[in-house]
Design brief:
mainly alpha, Molybdopterin biosynthesis moea protein, domain 2, 3 strands
Length: 76
């Protein structure tokens, strides 16, 4: 499914100017039909999957208990 720059900006929660800049930089793949850029929505699924994996990894790390310090029992 192809989206316009405006629809892509709404989908990614970004400003249209930022999406246009990313298209012109080549960071977002797009087709130009002579009037507007058309952006394939499927290219973002991998990104969102990676973001979700990273979020879960960080949450798992934050939920890990802090190990007991080995120097606490050391009495000099």
């Amino acid at each position: 499914m192809y989206l316009s720059v405006k629809e892509t900006a709404e989908y990614l929660s970004m400003h249209e100017s930022k999406v246009t800049a990313l298209v012109l930089q080549g960071k977002i793949r797009a087709l130009h039909d002579g009037k507007q850029f058309l952006i394939n929505k499927a290219q973002f699924t991998t990104h969102f999957e990676q973001v979700e994996k990273y979020r879960l990894m960080i949450q798992e790390y934050l939920n890990e208990p802090i190990p007991e310090d080995i120097d606490v029992k050391d009495e000099d």
